[in-house]
Amino acid sequence: MPEIEFQGTKFVVDEDGFIDTYTNWSEAWVQYVKKEEGIDELNEEHRKVIAMLREYYEKNGIAPMVRVLSKVTGFKLKHIYELFPSGPGKGACKMAGLPKPTGCV
Predict the structure, then answer these.
(1) Which of 7, 39, 50, 92 has the highest count of CB atoms within 10 angstroms of its CB?
(2) Does residue 27 form part of some domain?
(3) Which CATH number does the domain housing residue 38 bear?
(4) What is the rounded distance in angstroms from the CA atom of residue 61 to the CA atom of residue 79?
(5) CA 69, 74, 77, 81 torsion: positive or negative?
(6) Which residues are CB-contacts of 51 (< 8 A; sequence separation ≥ 6)?
(7) Mean pLDDT, residues 90-95 taken together
(8) Is 103 inside any structural domain?
(9) Inter-helix orientation angle 66-73/44-60, to 10°
(10) Residues that are catalytic
(11) pLDDT at residue 55 greater than cutoff 90
């Protein structure tokens, strides 16, 4: 698997750039993905989505469907795409340290 280094921290990633293991997630990873996604600053709404994704994954072992993500956060899908330009599956799940979703997220 490829390895990237960001601010002195090394991460092993898959071919799509997702972190290799959920437990290797850190704030440095969040900052790396933020930069890759072209997000200037993370706000409370970004953090809420990330926290919800991680909590759901810890309980269920998979990423939530988009409808669930929208319902639990209270954000419309359009707003989630505004927060994470590459979408909830690629951008938000990647930033949250989840594996690449296999279906719709």
Answers:
(1) 92
(2) yes
(3) 1.10.10.370
(4) 25
(5) negative
(6) none
(7) 95
(8) no
(9) 130
(10) 104
(11) yes
